[in-house]
Amino acid sequence: MSQHRDRPGDNGLAVQETKPKLKKPRLYRVLLLNDDYTPMEFVVIVLEKFFSKPREQAVQIMLHVHQRGTGVCGLYPLEIAETKVQQVVDFAQEHQHPLQCTMEPE
Fold first, then answer.
1. Which end of the chain is more exposed for a tag (fewer CB within 10 A), N or C?
2. What's the pLDDT tens digit per position in 9-53?
3. Global pTM?
4. What is the DSSP pairing of strand 100-105 with strand 70-77?
5. How many angstroms separate the Cα of 82 from the Cα of each of 14, 53, 58?
6. Rounded to whole angstroms, how far apart are CA atoms 54 and 45?
7. CB under 8 Å to 48, separation ≥6 — which residues?
8. What is the pLDDT of residue 61?
């Protein structure tokens, strides 16, 4: 006689616990748009201040915006992207520059 006794509900299969799969939040590109009036140095300051870019990278992004018309400042979840866009627009208005910042889904 076997010493193994079946427990109620035990069909001999191992039970695997499944963890819910967490979806990564959708990311948004925050973009700066070129204009003919905002000083290049101001754009560099914006990139350093609001996007924590080191000076050299800020200059590269600023030049890309200047030459191509637009440039990516970073990828962020929705709420952070919205906040950064608003911070940049407000800061530009405070300093009387027409610099525009927008966002788009990745």
1. N
2. 556 566 666 777 888 889 999 999 999 999 999 999 999 999 999
3. 0.78
4. unpaired
5. 47, 18, 20
6. 10
7. 54, 55, 58
8. 98
Side chain identity, residue 31: L
For residue 25, the model assigns a pLDDT of 85
Helix (H) or strand (E) holding 21: none
Sign of the torsion formed by the C-alpha atoms of 40, 59, 64 and 95: negative
DSSP annotation string for 76-103: EEHHHHHHHHHHHHHHHHHTT---EEEE
Matching residue, tokens 């018309």: 69
Which residue's structure tokens are 């520059």?
97
Structure token pair of residue 52: 């924590």
| Averaged pLDDT for residues 62-83 | 97
Q: Outline where the chain has alpha helix (H).
A: 40-51, 55-68, 78-94
Question: Burial code of 2-29, b = ≥16 C-beta within 10 A, e = fewer?
Answer: eeeeeeeeeeeeeeeeeeeeeeeeebbb
pLDDT at 67: 97
